[in-house]
Amino acid sequence: AKKTTRGSTQFYQDSMSVQAREELMLENDIHKAIKNDEFVMYYQPQLNVETNEIIGAEALIRWMHPEKGLIMPDAFIPLAEESGIIIKLEEWIFDRICSDAKKLSEDMGGFNLHHIAINVSTIHFLEPHFVEKLMLLVKKHKVRPEWFELEITESGIMRNVEDAIQKIKELKDFGFTFSIDDFGTGYSSLSHLKELPVDVIKIDQSFVRNMNENDEMIIEAVVAIGQKFDLEVLAEGVESDKILEYLKDINCNTYQGYFAHTPIALDEFEALLKPKK
Ligand code: C2E
Ligand code: CA
Ligand code: CA
Ligand code: CA
Questions:
Q1: In the chain, which residues have pLDDT < 50?
Q2: CA neighbours within 13 Å on the CB side: how many for 151?
Q3: Going by CA atoms, what residue is nearest to atom 17 of ligand 1?
Q4: Of 220, 130, 223, 144, nearest to 176 (Cα)?
Q5: Where does the EAL domain lie (predicted)?
Q6: Which residue among 25, 139, 225, 227 has its CA within the 20 to 30 Å range from the CA of 199?
Q7: pTM of the full predicted structure?
Q8: Are 186 and 153 contacting, i.e. CB atoms less than 8 angstroms apart?
Q9: Residues with a beta carbon under 5 angstroms from ion ligand 3
Q10: Using a 6 Å CB cutoff, which residues line ligand 1?
Q11: Most distant CA pair in the chain: distance in Å?
Q12: Under a CB-based contact definition with an 8 Å cutoff, are residues 226 and 232 in contact?
C-alpha cells in the first residue's frame, strides 16, 4: 500500500508542469519572504527634462534573498502574477510605500514632490475591492492620495476597459493620479486614450535606450499625442546626455533613467532631496 501511495504521489508531482511547480514554490517563498522582511522598495528619481529638478520617484521592488542574494523583479513579478500571489505581495508593497512616503514627508517637513509612482498589477487593479483597499490604506498611514501616481499598463486596461475607466475615475476623485506605463508596447489604446482620464504617458524604455530613427518617430508621435490630450509625457530609460538633449528639443516633459539616477534606497533618495550645504 505504501508503494502505491508513493507511486501516486510521484505521478501527481510528475504531472504538474514545471511552471506549476515553480509557481507553488514561489508562492511559499513569497509568503515567507514577506514574513521575514526580505523585500525592499527602491526609488528611482523622476526629473523635469528642462530644469533637471527631481519631481518624484517610481517605487521598484527588490528581493534581498538570504541565500540567493539580490533578486530583481523581472525574476518573480511575472510568476507572482500568474499564481495570483501578486495581490498579497502588492498589499505589502503599497503598505510599505505609504509608510516610506509618510517618513519622507516628516523628514522633509512636508511632502514636496509631485508624487511617488506605484506599479499596479492588472490582476490586482481589476479585483473588486481595489479602490476600497487603497482608501483604507491611505487612512491607516495618514498619507494623502495626491502623493501617489498609479501606474497601469495598456494591455491591463484593455482587458476590461469599462471597469478600468470606472476605477480610475473613482480613485481620481479621491486625489490619486494615473499614468500609462510601457506606452507603445501593448495593444494600442489610442482609440481609448481620449476616454481614459489618465495624467501621464510613460514612453517605454525600449524606444528610448539606444534610440534610432524609427524610435525617434515614435517618441515624437507620443509627445504630440500628449500635447494634444494635455497629458504629461515621461521618457523612461534615458541613459545619455545626448538623449536628454533630444528630449529637451522635442519638449518631452519628464524622464527617468540611469543617466540621472538608478533606483536607490529610501535614505539615499532622501539625501538627494535635502538641500546641499
Ligand atoms: P517598469 O515598471 O517598466 O520599471 C522600469 C524598469 O526600468 C526598472 O527595472 C528600472 O530599474 C529600469 N530602468 C530605469 N531606468 C533605466 C535605464 O536608464 N536603463 C535601463 N536599462 N533600465 C532602466 P526593475 O526595477 O528591474 O523592474 C522591472 C519591472 O518589474 C518593472 O518595469 C515593473 O514592470 C516590475 N516591477 C518592479 N517593481 C514592481 C512593483 O512594486 N510592483 C509591480 N507590480 N511590478 C513591479
Ligand atoms: Ca513602471
Ligand atoms: Ca515602464
Ligand atoms: Ca514593464
A1: 1-11, 277
A2: 20
A3: 237
A4: 144
A5: 23-277
A6: 139
A7: 0.92
A8: yes
A9: 181-182
A10: 44, 59-61, 72-74, 77, 90, 93, 119, 121, 181-182, 205, 209, 236-239, 256-258, 263
A11: 77
A12: yes
214's grid cell? 524609427
Which residues sit opposite 202 in a β-bridge? 234
* Closest residue CA from atom 38 of ligand 1: 60
Name residues whose C-beta falls within 8 Å of residue 254's C-beta, 6 or more positions apart in sequence: 46, 47, 48, 49, 55, 200, 232, 233, 234, 235
Give the per-residue SS3 of the chain: CHHHHHHHHHHHHHHCCHHHHHHHHHHHHHHHHHHCCCEEEEEEEEEECCCCCEEEEEEEEEEEECCCEEECHHHCHHHHHHHCCHHHHHHHHHHHHHHHHHHHHHHCCCCCCCEEEEECCHHHHCCCCHHHHHHHHHHHHCCCHHHEEEEEEHHHHHHCHHHHHHHHHHHHHHCCEEEEEEECCCCCCHHHHCCCCCCEEEECHHHHCCCCHHHHHHHHHHHHHHHHHCCEEEECCCCCHHHHHHHHHCCCCEECCCCCCCCECHHHHHHHHCCCC
Ligand 1 atom with the smallest distance to the CA of 59 is: 41
Residue 240 C-alpha cell reads as 545619455
- Lookup: cell for 129: 475591492
ipTM greater than cut 0.95: yes
Cα 58 to ligand 1 centre (Å): 9
Q: Cα dist. 224→14, 127, 242, 262 in Å?
A: 54, 33, 21, 28
Q: What spacing in Å lies between the alpha carbon of 162 and ligand 4's midpoint? A: 23
Rg (CA), the chain: 21
Rounded to the nearest 10 degrees, the angle between the axes of helix 161-174 and helix 130-141 is 20
What does the alpha-carbon distance between residue 219 and residue 224 come to, in Å, rounded to a whole number? 9
Residues shown for the chain: 277
